[in-house]
Write a structure and sequence with these properties.
By secondary structure, the chain is α+β, with helices and mostly antiparallel strands. Among the domains are: about 170 residues, no CATH class; about 150 residues, no CATH class. Strand 9 and strand 10 form a beta hairpin.
Length: about 650
């Protein structure tokens, strides 16, 4: 979540349904091709390799990564070598792909080994002067976890690491042609070990730090608070370095152990310095940018021109030392962070900026034999915890680390099918959160944490957001919208379905509208029991926020999924209620439906098409209440299903 525009927040809990909007087909576009291969030919070669006995062993070892790897490598290599596509049995491309897969497998064998003989990253603890996250340590999430719980969690974390490493390596080698040594026209090649190791170190480090040292750790049914003073709170968690600058004081079971623990110490919510009670469920720190942990506060200051950005202090320690104090790299985890007051209280923009910096520093330290000189030089002009991505394009990496950042980071837009584990992306919620609800819950800066063969089943993790599939991620973020719709329906029913409902604090108007003069009614007793189809009117002018201008109607229809607009040229009739602020063509607003025509698979757009084509029978239309599922969020595709995803990612650097 982000509050770059300084808005208050709402919060939700669970996710349930499937995300379908995210699924887009991977394109057959390759970088650096000398010509565009025929897609039919590419498909034919990929199919042949899918059953080729010559690479059967490699295909089985690659598993779920095989399809993506082969498609991208065939596309690139045939683009460089047109004659390979005309060979009998595709001998050259088969030999080249086999050679590349052998090289990838050899690299993985060295890094992770086998269950019987694990490599340095094949177990929970790496024996290295600069080791990756100690999974044996972070598996003890709570101070009173039993050995049995820790052992089970440790094994789960190891299996997750193996999946993450596998996905990082296969995807990187499929997409980054610069990782390969040798000529593109040769039928054998080997991966560049140094460049690939750095990519692995950076991506794995960022994902594991997010997974295991963020506030996204698994919940307990009832939190256990120990209050030492108004400025010392312990929740039994021993691994968390980053929190949001707010606290949900209610536990999952509805109890309020935090307030109870305060009372036992003779304190109350009003006695906590710098914090305010937002509502009965939530406390919030009063500084817009949050707060850096006490031992690192001297190293950071709020930016002079933007009160949401943290800048490192130039007169402070070396950049590597500053990062060590911000997010200590040690095992066991620094015990001082068991106190909530000793953690960083920041938003997702800040936290993910810190992860980028930490992962770069970590990988350079390993590449340079435990020497921080390169990182300290690269970050000498300052480090920034800031907003790095927007809806349409990445921010220049120099926003993160000054002029040298472009040597280490790529800010690109890619097909959703070509996202890589460790990519920094934004998940966009329904734009209602970002604008009219004035909530930071409108987006989440996230990392792709697992790339399945079907990216619809891939996983994402964000600051305070547990590791989830995209479907679950969407559902979890949309819960407040479902609650809002339930509240609105109750208000409509209580008013007898006769009155327009104004919600001036949200700049919303709830009204009935019959686009073609139809007669609407509930399909059955389980639906909203009022006459008419009811809608939430959203004026385009009200979608402006801070420095962000109002949306045009095309973007609004995408960012408010399932919304519709009045089109008089298609025979639609405008609402009959009094709306004095409408334009002549009624295109100053979009409308979010509270119901949908029963039995029409494509919802309102399909219904409009049938009505305009004379295919829908009669003027009596039964309605079902809309279900708030993942289709109500744009997800990764801010500009629609044919758009690419803005990404900030590590740059491949050859020695």
């Amino acid at each position: 979540m982000s509050v770059a525009d300084g808005a208050p927040m709402t919060f939700g809990r669970r996710a349930r349904r499937l995300f379908r909007r995210f699924l887009i087909l991977g394109t057959l576009l390759g970088a650096g091709c000398h010509h565009d291969p025929d897609p039919t030919l590419i498909a034919k070669i990929v199919a042949a390799l899918g059953i080729s006995e010559a690479i059967e062993t490699q295909r089985l070892r690659a598993g779920r990564a095989f399809g993506h790897f082969v498609r991208r490598r065939v596309l690139y290599l045939v683009g460089q070598n047109a004659s390979w596509g005309g060979e009998a049995n595709f001998a050259s491309i088969t030999q080249r792909v086999k050679s590349e897969m052998d090289s990838v497998i050899a690299f993985l064998d060295v890094k992770v080994g086998t269950p019987a003989a694990p490599g340095p990253l094949g177990g929970p603890t790496e024996n290295d002067a600069t080791p990756h996250v100690d999974l044996a340590d972070v598996a003890k999430v709570y101070v009173d976890d039993t050995d049995t719980i820790v052992a089970s969690r440790r094994e789960q974390f190891v299996q997750t690491r193996l999946k993450v490493i596998d996905a990082i390596i296969w995807r990187a080698c499929a997409l980054h042609h610069e990782l390969w040594d040798g000529s593109d026209s040769a039928t054998s090649a080997s991966v560049n070990q140094i460049a690939l190791t750095e990519i692995l170190d950076r991506r794995l480090r960022a994902v594991e730090r997010m997974l295991y040292t963020d506030s996204s750790i698994e919940d307990r049914p009832t939190l256990e608070w120990t209050i030492e003073s108004a400025q010392s709170w312990k929740d039994q968690v021993r691994v968390t370095l980053f929190e949001y600058p707010f606290l949900n004081n209610l536990a999952a079971d509805g109890s309020d152990p935090f307030s109870q623990a305060l009372a036992a110490k003779g304190l109350s919510l009003s006695s906590i310095p710098g914090w305010s009670q937002m509502d009965p469920t939530q406390l919030r720190y009063n500084v817009r940018a949050g707060r850096i942990n006490p031992q690192a506060q001297v190293d950071w200051k709020i930016d002079a021109t933007n009160s949401y950005i943290w800048d490192s202090v130039s007169a402070a320690d070396k950049p590597s030392v500053i990062l060590d104090k911000l997010m200590p790299n040690q095992s066991p985890v620094d015990p001082s962070f068991q106190d909530f007051w000793n953690r960083n209280w920041v938003f997702c923009d800040h936290m993910i900026s810190a992860l980028h910096l930490d992962a770069l520093r970590f990988a350079l330290l390993r590449r340079n034999r435990d020497n921080d000189n390169e990182f300290n030089s690269a970050a000498a002009s300052g480090m920034h915890l800031t907003v790095l991505l927007s809806g349409t394009s990445p921010v220049n990496p120099t926003e993160l680390m000054g002029a040298n950042a472009s040597k280490y980071f790529d800010a690109v837009k890619v097909s959703a099918a070509d996202l890589e584990v460790g990519d920094h992306i934004i998940f966009w919620n329904n734009y209602l959160f970002r604008t009219l609800l004035a909530s930071d819950f409108g987006l989440e800066n996230s990392l792709l944490s697992d790339a399945a063969g079907d990216l619809n089943a891939s996983s994402y993790v964000g600051h305070g957001e547990k590791n989830r599939t995209l479907a679950d991620f969407a559902e979890r973020m949309l819960e407040p919208l479902a609650t809002l719709f339930t509240t609105i329906r109750a208000a409509i029913v209580n008013g007898g379905g006769l009155h327009v409902i104004d919600m001036p604090s949200l700049k919303l108007k709830i009204l009935p509208w019959a686009p073609y003069g139809e007669h609407f009614s509930a399909a059955d007793a389980n639906q909203m029991q009022v006459a008419g189809a009811w809608w939430i009117r959203v004026k385009l002018a009200d979608t402006a926020r801070g420095n962000t201008p109002a949306l045009n109607i095309s973007d609004a229809l995408n960012l408010f999924p399932n919304s519709v607009a009045i089109d008089l040229s298609k025979g639609m009739q405008p609402p009959t209620v009094n709306l004095p602020d409408h334009t002549a063509d009624w295109r100053e607003s979009i409308y979010l439906p509270l119901s949908v025509p029963n039995g029409v698979q494509g919802g309102w757009p399909e219904y409009f098409s049938e009505r305009q084509g004379g295919e829908y029978p009669g003027m009596k239309v039964p309605l079902d209440d809309v279900k708030i599922d993942a289709s109500w969020a744009p997800g990764l595709l801010y500009k629609g299903v044919n758009s690419k995803v803005p990404v900030l990612r590590p740059k491949v650097r050859r020695p």
